[in-house]
Amino acid sequence: MFDPRPLVDIASAIGREAGALVQRMRASAVVSFDTKSTSTDVVTAADRASEQLVRTRLSELRPGEPVLGEEEGGSVVEGLTWVVDPIDGTVNYLYGIPWYSVSIAAQLDGESVAGAVFEPATGRMWTAARGHGSFLDGSPLRVSTTTDLSLSLLGYGFAYRPERRQRQADAWARMAARVRDLRRAGAASLDLCSVAAGRLDAYTEHGLGRWDWAAGGLIAAEAGAVVRLPGSSPELGEDATFAAAPGIADAMHSALVESGYGKV
Ligand code: IPD
Description:
Blueprint: H1 5-29, E1 34-35, E2 42-43, H2 45-61, E3 67-69, E4 80-88, H3 90-95, E5 101-108, E6 111-119, E7 124-129, E8 134-136, E9 139-140, E10 153-156, H4 162-176, E11 181-183, H5 188-197, E12 202-206, H6 210-222, E13 226-228, E14 240-244, H7 246-258
Residues 70, 85, 88-90, 157, 186-188, 205, 208, 212 line the site of D-MYO-inositol-1-phosphate (IPD).
């Protein structure tokens, strides 16, 4: 039977090495940067160098296996694909907010089986293998036991396009009256890990790349979260990612739909 745990060890080791590079480069990398989909969607030299390093190490340790990365692209194939976000939370990185990660997942036929999310600024490592639970620095993770939507903490994110952002903000304003509070932390992989650890009761965002959710989504699911990936929840929007503690997942989903979030 296929055991994904050795893939977690590889993802963790490479993530740690890439994370060290990202930290070493920070002072020089934030001086100048390029933009991608909009003027607020940034990429630094460290994003590119980190992806290069991950690709090189994967080609040494897992020769011939395809890689999909945020900066250099690629595609998901039948069989095994590595999915890499070389810096998730690049805007936080740029501003010196220590909430960014290197995220590496292995997907089998497009589904995550192993994942590692490394926080370069703190040295914390989040991991999961399908069927084997999820961990923060080796300690098992479990989602929150909350059952009351009005006492739930909801993480969220914004799209890059200003018009969509405005519609999302309107929906978040409606949600604010229905939950304990909202958090926009700025790194999707770590938002998903936060649901795994019970630091958030739920998290949702539209328009994530596969590299944003591939490792974190598995870490949340293995900690007991209800996870819906893009394409699986049309009521929330075709490109919605959603993760929630089971005790509030249905209520949160309904509240989001009622807030108009699915039509932004
Ligand atoms: C971004 C972060 C952010 C989310 C954006 C992502 P990047 O990833 O995860 O929290 O709101 O949608 O693109 O570009 O920093 O890898």
